[in-house]
Amino acid sequence: MTTRPIWAVAALVMRPDDGRILAINRPGAPDDLAMLGGHVDEGETPEEAVVRECREEASIEVDPACLEWLYDREDVSVGLVVRCFFVGRWTGAPESREPGLVVRWARAGELTTPASTFRRWVAMALFAAGFPFRLEDG
User: SS3 for 11?
Assistant: First the structure.
């Protein structure tokens, strides 16, 4: 019997003026940065999920017509597929709507470990979106 994968989404939201990426720190993991995102709910498309997650986590409204698919990353060990989107246009001032969640603009170089998951995901997303980026970039 084949198990259907669990789907999740990630959003690469970048400021055009300085290239900073909208990142979140979840409660209980203050040193762990992540892109906006989460699970795709039953009956929801990945595009609808990324719009909802951006609204829920960072109070920004995303124009679904300006989403660009970047890549799908599958982790077969846990049966998870993450679809990453570049968010080309949004409105609103990013702020947390969830207790304990910190939303902030970050550069990959601000992180302390070059091998961090956030840096790898951001590098993959920027590469897929056509932006030059190396893990040592800040």
Answer: strand
Say if domain 6-128 classifies as CATH 3.90.79.10.
yes
Given this model, what pLDDT does residue 48 score?
97
CA distance 22 to 75: 24
**Distance between CA 90 and CA 122 in Å, rounded?**
19
- The answer to whether 118 and 111 are in contact (CB under 8 A) is yes
**For residue range 75-110, what is the model confidence (pLDDT) as tens digits?**
888 888 999 999 988 999 999 988 888 999 987 665
Is 102:27 a contact under the CB 8 Å cutoff?
no
Answer for the pair 45, 6: CB distance below 8 angstroms, yes or no. Answer: no
Rounded CA gap, 56 and 84, in Å? 17
Domain boundaries, the chain: 6-128
SS3 of residue 130 by DSSP: coil
- Say if residues 71 and 85 touch (Cβ distance below 8 Å): no
